[in-house]
Amino acid sequence: MSMNAIHVMMFPWSAFGHLIPFFQLSIALAKAGVRVSFISTPKNIQRLPKLPSTLAHLVELVQLPLPTLDKELLPEGAEATVDIPFEQIQYLKLAYDQLQHAVKQFVANESPDWIICDFSPHWMKDIAQEFQVRLVFYSVFSASAMAIIGPCTRKFPIYPESLTVPPEWVTFPSSVAFRRQEAIAFCAGVNQVNASGVCDWERMATVCGASKAVLFRSCNEIEGEYLNLFQKLVGKPVIPIGLLPVERPERERGIVDGCSDDIFEWLDKQGSKSVVFVGFGSECKLSKDQVFEIAYGLEESQLPFLWELRKPSWASTDQDSVPYGFHGRTSNRGIVCMGWIPQQEILAHPSIGGSLFHSGWGSAIEALQFGHSLVVLPFIIDQPLNARFLVEKGLAIEVKRNEDGSFTGNDIARSLRQAMVLEESKKLRINTREAAAVVGNLKLHQDLYIAAFVQFLKDETGN
After folding, report:
1. Given this structure, which CATH class describes domain 3-245+441-461?
2. pLDDT for 330-368, tens place per residue?
3. Cα-based angle 31, 33, 39 (whole degrees, multiple of 5)
4. Which end of the chain is more exposed for a tag (fewer CB within 10 A), N or C?
5. Is there a shared CATH topology between the 3-245+441-461 domain and the 262-439 domain?
6. What are the residue boundaries of the structural domains of the chain, listed by start?
């Protein structure tokens, strides 16, 4: 059997913080000669980045229609978490679970050698066992976060107090832990059995427990101690697949949704490494108070900025999304882009020197690839743990919060200036520049980490 005969099926959860890492891994495996079937819903697949034409013969994008629910539970056309408010995500999980029958039929017809799946399809265990297909769990969370919260390491239910200090099995120096408010919010989410009938904790534990290996979008150079720790905890291979950095993107020209090519013309006029990129993604739904305090902080910092801001649900117009007069007061040194922008191309621009973001793992990798100084303002799930890890590594400044989790514009401004212009920024820039040499090393991640994973697949299938 040749190398090309290895067939991997990918099945991510319907959130773009999960879909994109799975898609990136699909491309990396295809570059190594592995055949990939990437399964999701039609609308989600249509919103993925364009598949390189040179890999089209190895990556099949399989569209399975999402089963419909009552429109009051899940609106028509809602196929990902970005399409719905937080309280409706439980119904998206309910519809997602009903894909089980179509996925089972695909496995029966196509007989893949491997299934690489996310935390959510707990029922994939039964499908893999019935058809004798090897199962692998791909965690889109960092190894440092999973070592603290992983379902293979804790008893259910979880209590907030157990998450506010590093657990006893973390024997090396570490400050990675939730603060109390963060721990309470996290436990409320993972312990809850909602409309789908299965809590997230049980989903992840089932998938992880049934898998032959666990994959992390990580590398030994960044998270080696946590990768080794997690492998000891789960007692099965833990495989870093590298950080999946993108090739330095070409600048997109022409009109884009929300901003035009003027954005690059403006960036071209700014000093090297002087501009702060601000972006909290499509999944992070911020309150009016939170958005306004970020705006006040940008204004007070006196730094040049480029803010990607999607119109919040509470705003009636784009103008209502920021404080009255904000555009006028900052027009000489900042741009607010409402809607989608070519983020990779912007992050790669030489005038961008810092990033203010939620510290999601994928976003952290993107920013570090280009050596940006990081200012982290975490909100949900693993973001607080990623923030502590990045600070611990000397790669980020975390925005100070009050006991209730709130923050002020002054807190934002102070952190931005610490990262960009004050004395603290010098060491931070050295550290992030050194990290960029690792994170952005395409040869390291493709030729070493992906190659090693492909060899694992080959060995286990007898190729």
Report:
1. alpha beta
2. 989 999 988 778 888 899 999 999 999 999 999 999 999
3. 80
4. N
5. yes
6. 3-245+441-461, 262-439
